[in-house]
Design goal:
Helix content: 25-40%
Number of strands: 9
CATH architecture of the domain at 7-37 and 102-108 and 120-251: Alpha-Beta Barrel
Shape: globular
Distance between the termini: 21 Å
Strand content: 15-25%
Structural class: alpha/beta
CATH topology of the domain at 7-37 and 102-108 and 120-251: TIM Barrel
Order of helices and strands: EHEEHHEHHEHEHEHEHE
CATH class of the domain at 7-37 and 102-108 and 120-251: Alpha Beta
Amino acid sequence: MWLYPRIAAHRGGGKLAPENTLAALRCGLAHGYHAVEIDAMLSGDGVPVLMHDPVLGRTVAGRGPVAALSAAQLGALDAGSWFGPAFAGEPVPTLEQAILFCRESGIWMNIEIKPSPGADAATGRAVAELVHALFAKELEQGAHAALPLLSSFSAEALAAAGDAAPGLARALLVTSVPADWLARLRMLGASALHVDHARLTERRAQAVKEHGFGLFCYTVNSVKRARELLAWGVDAFCTDRIDLVPADVDKL
């Protein structure tokens, strides 16, 4: 059963703010989004930070691998100027800072574990341990709908996250549904499959749902496509077009 919101803002604020920043989270919230998808990667000193790319340059000013810098060094870099002058100086937040903001603002999180090369297990473990510590009360109370969902393309990262915090739900990310999807999910103890909506078929969607797993799609940027996917039985999706796709599924 899918316990979570059905529409999430991709990387915090979609195409309206610099991705994976507190500014993006504020932007999504301003558009009525109380659910987000964000990416978590390890800094050089083992701190989970919000980051999608393993090397600097696309969204964060600088050069070289993210893993070569400490969280403090990353936090001092500019993660906003690439998007526009209004966001100049926007820092790289830690995952903890993002979680605290989301908790205070009533925002649910799909946290994608995004390992740098060779850091799969370490990243999965660190993210799960942090989430477990910050949501200890909800875990103790069994408030599963309030807990973040951990997702990743890396089976190794998901397995490590499961070992570190077995009470947290996890989802396997894929580009298209593989022939052995069911075996993969069962092996990992995952509760959901996340797939590129453009590569999903209605038949595959129905098969996933018939076996009792959650089904989430990325990145759906039109109301027409969102309606089609929901009609297929897709549980939820994320979008970059938070300006076009309403945050409330009942308004689609």
